[in-house]
Amino acid sequence: MRNSPSKNGSAGGHSRTFTDSIWSPFFKSGFGISSNRSYALISLLILLIAGAFISTRLLLDTTTVLIEKEAVTTTTQTQTQTISPKYPRPTTVITQSPKPEFTLHCSANETTASCPSNKYPTTASFGEDDDTNHPPNATCPDYFRWIHEDLRPWSSTGITREALERAKKTANFRLAIIDGKIYVEKFQDAFQTRDVFTIWGFLQLLRKYPGKIPDLELMFDCVDWPVVKASEFTGANAPSPPPLFRYCGNEETLDIVFPDWSFWGWAEVNIKPWESLLKELREGNQRTKWINREPYAYWKGNPMVAETRQDLMKCNVSEEHEWNARLYVQDWIKESNEGYKQSDLASQCHHRYKIYIEGSAWSVSEKYILACDSVTLLVKPHYYDFFTRGLLPAHHYWPVREHDKCRSIKFAVDWGNSHIQKAQDIGKAASDFIQHELKMDYVYDYMYHLLTEYSKLLRFKPEIPQNAAEICSETMACPRSGNERKFMTESFVKHPAESGPCAMPPPYDPALLYGVVKRKQSTNMRILQWEMKYWSKQNQTGS
Ligand SMILES: *[C@@H]1O[C@H](CO)[C@@H](O)[C@H](O)[C@H]1NC(C)=O
Ligand SMILES: *[C@@H]1O[C@H](CO)[C@@H](O)[C@H](O)[C@H]1NC(C)=O
Ligand SMILES: *[C@@H]1O[C@H](CO)[C@@H](O)[C@H](O)[C@H]1NC(C)=O
Ligand SMILES: *[C@@H]1O[C@H](CO)[C@@H](O)[C@H](O)[C@H]1NC(C)=O
């Protein structure tokens, strides 16, 4: 759904050969090691981690999973709304905010919009001194720990101006923050309004945390695919990698991931800013209880942007096959003409299972899919964005194999329909994650911490770029109309934060990070084993 039909160049034909890295390293890890002792140690470690994880998180019984079918009939099962103890519901609701709200100051002649001086506070209402009076909120969600990993390539060398300038090669713009003001030097147009809404996000961050964002210069690339290949920057004499911000990364690259434009709105396809959409999604979710939803896996999007999506289309229900999938093509042109009635995201939680599949790279649709209480069937992804590394298989989503999608989907849906409670728990864990750990406050806090840590690495004094213009909310929003103006007005930060950002969690120690990765792999392995068992049984009974 991320790509509209007018997306040129990057659509389709972009095939890659990837090794199936979720499965294969698990097999390789033992056999590649010659010493029996280290093999034994690693196996033991994996077993311990896997055991601890499976007993607490999965609570699934491997032997009975595929044989028993729980009756899907009783009405009592509809009462299984899980209130997560991790996220107690707020007891009081503050309806009216007494503090003054700032609004956009657009002059009558909107083509001459200028940046107002002294209109906004330049320092935060919480200072360094009174941090004790306004203690920062609790620790940030776990996925913030990846900020340390993303910046690790520069942790010992720092970032020199020379390295920064090398990132210019593919960047769409350079952004400088100097004394709380933003200056942008544009190099090349981005697709649609990606760059515009990304820069808008930076502006709003400064409004939320005035006086708190350090001076810096950074390069931003708005194109889908990560480009800074790790392999080119290893070895004693290799240069340090260019620090390049973009929306996603993968295991082979060192690009620094940053929240994508859609958090402030995607004007071209009528996707609202995240804050209000998140609320609508929460309400939309309540319209149909999980148990009353269609017991199939749903997907709607543009299959033309990637081969893997075209492959998925083969799993649609047909006269010959029932793979438990219901797949639809998103026709953005038609939807645009009809006012996007069919693409309202908040009313797309009508199936028990929703498929997430990457397009040409990561897809902004992932958060919308996870936000339904439905079980997300995640076709093995190759890219990550800033928050997806916090997701765990069998806890937040159900993994689906990419090379045998139809069988994998059929198995997942059959499993869920015969393990109703566990399936609902997975759906709920994902929507809780999205509602609580990915709320807009945390998106800003992620930006805050990433930029703060990044600025500490700079080995040069950031300056106003020569060809840059000062940009503020007025110069951006006032000349615009339609959805762009509407979404900017809506996502405009109206007053500074009253408390500091959440506290940054410490880096993973290497053993813990290894444990996290292994835990995911062993869960995936286990699910694969169930699937193989299921299919050998199905094959035997000849269905
Ligand atoms: C707005 O300002 C521009 C540039 O100064 C000028 O060309 C234009 O005529 C003005 N428009 C109106 C409606 O005053
Ligand atoms: C999948 O099947 C349904 C039901 O037959 C149909 O309405 C839909 O258009 C099909 N989707 C695709 C992508 O062919
Ligand atoms: C921090 O606390 C304030 C006030 O209690 C709240 O409005 C804000 O949403 C919190 N921030 C986060 C990131 O949870
Ligand atoms: C089941 O049969 C299909 C089709 O013949 C085959 O591709 C698949 O590998 C078999 N699966 C198992 C687990 O035997």
Please provide the ordered H/E string of secondary-structure elements.
HHHHHEEHEEEHEHEHEHEEHHHEHHH
Shape: globular
From the alpha-carbon coordinates, what is the Rg to the nearest angstrom?
A: 24 Å
User: What ranges have pLDDT less than 50 throughout 5 or more consecutive residues?
Assistant: 1-42, 44-85, 88-94, 124-134
Catalogue the ligands. Answer: 2-acetamido-2-deoxy-beta-D-glucopyranose
Q: Could you say how many structural domains there are in total? A: 2
Helicity level: 25-40%
Strand order of the largest sheet: 7-6-8-9-10
Q: Report mean pLDDT, rounded to a whole number.
A: 81
Structural class: alpha/beta
Largest sheet: 5 strands, parallel
Through-space gap between termini: 34 Å
Characterize the quaternary organization of these chains.
single chain
**DSSP strand count:** 11
Q: Proportion of β residues?
A: 5-15%
What is the number of helices?
16
Domain Glycosyl transferase CAP10: 212-461
Organism: Arabidopsis lyrata subsp. lyrata
Transmembrane segments: 38-60
InterPro entries: CAP10, O-Glucosyltr/Glycosyltrsf_90
SSE inventory with pairings:
Blueprint: H1 24-31, H2 36-58, H3 62-65, H4 146-151, H5 161-166, E1 173-178, E2 181-186, H6 194-208, E3 216-220, E4 245-246, E5 256-257, H7 274-287, E6 294-301, H8 307-313, E7 325-329, H9 332-337, E8 351-356, H10 365-371, E9 375-379, E10 398-400, H11 405-418, H12 420-437, H13 440-457, E11 469-471, H14 473-477, H15 482-491, H16 510-541
Parallel strand pairs: 4-5, 6-7, 6-8, 8-9, 9-10
Antiparallel strand pairs: 1-2, 1-3, 2-11
